[in-house]
């Protein structure tokens, strides 16, 4: 990395956890280092984000394409998760999911996260259809007024073994809206 370099800093909030992503760039605009600062310094989440940033930074500096990291981190699922203030990324399944989606949209392609399942890279889990996501968000907002009750409509659902998308309840089982597979029921 050059001694002096351009950078981009992005503020985000996921499930009430605020943070900042700072990306240091090479002269050609490619990302070469990433710093992630969470507002709750000393927390487990903050420590994990520091480790992730260091790992991604070293990978980028040794030639690993950003796309490889983004494809692996999109749709990771753990708390905190939920609705964000970013109009381009309305709902995420974790802080890692948010970071991957933002990095993909900012440095790979603005349309990166809107690809159809057929256009998805083989390593990337299928993404939620944006029209379906808007429907889910609208129903959550209509039925729940307190932010504590605004949860993922798929909470507790397993990921599809074929494509990685979160499955939806289908009677006593779960069904993948992307691939059509079920969790074992007919």
Strand-residue proportion: 15-25%
Distance between the termini: 55 Å
Count the domains.
2
Return Rg in Å. Answer: 17 Å
List the uncertain runs: 115-130, 143-153
Main sheet strand line-up:
1-2-3
What is the number of E strands? 7
How many DSSP H or I helices?
Answer: 4
What's the SSE pattern?
EEEHHEEHHEE
Helix content: 25-40%
Instruction: Provide mean pLDDT, rounded.
Output: 75
Summarize the structure.
This protein is of the alpha+beta class and 186 residues long.
Task: Name its key features.
7 strands, 19% strand, 4 helices, alpha+beta, 186 residues, single chain, three-stranded antiparallel beta sheet
Question: Topology of this structure?
Answer:
Blueprint: E1 7-14, E2 17-25, E3 31-38, H1 44-61, H2 66-73, E4 82-83, E5 91-92, H3 95-108, H4 130-143, E6 168-170, E7 173-175
Antiparallel strand pairs: 1-2, 2-3, 4-5, 6-7
Helix pairs in contact: 2-3
Task: Describe the model.
The chain is of the alpha+beta class. It folds into two domains: 114 residues, no CATH class; 70 residues, no CATH class. It contains four helices and seven strands, in the order βββααββααββ. A three-stranded antiparallel beta sheet has the order 1-2-3. A hairpin with a 5-residue loop joins strand 2 and strand 3. Helix 2 runs antiparallel to helix 3. It is globular and about 60 Å long. About 15% of the residues have low confidence.
């Amino acid at each position: 990395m050059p001694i002096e370099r351009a950078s981009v800093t992005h503020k985000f909030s996921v499930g009430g956890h605020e943070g900042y992503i700072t990306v240091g760039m090479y002269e050609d605009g490619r990302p070469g280092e990433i710093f992630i600062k969470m507002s709750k310094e000393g927390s487990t989440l903050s420590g994990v984000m520091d480790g992730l940033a260091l790992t991604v930074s070293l990978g980028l500096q040794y030639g690993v394409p950003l796309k490889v990291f983004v494809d692996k981190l999109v749709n990771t699922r753990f708390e905190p998760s939920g609705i964000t203030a970013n109009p381009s990324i309305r709902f995420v399944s974790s802080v890692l999911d948010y970071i991957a989606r933002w990095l993909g949209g900012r440095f790979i392609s603005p349309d990166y996260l809107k690809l159809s399942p057929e256009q998805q890279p083989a390593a990337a889990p299928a993404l939620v259809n944006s029209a379906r996501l808007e429907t889910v968000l609208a129903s959550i907002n209509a039925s729940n007024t307190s932010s504590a009750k605004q949860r993922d409509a798929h909470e507790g659902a397993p990921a599809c073994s074929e494509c990685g998308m979160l499955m939806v309840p289908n009677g006593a089982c779960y069904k993948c809206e992307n691939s059509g597979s079920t969790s074992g029921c007919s």
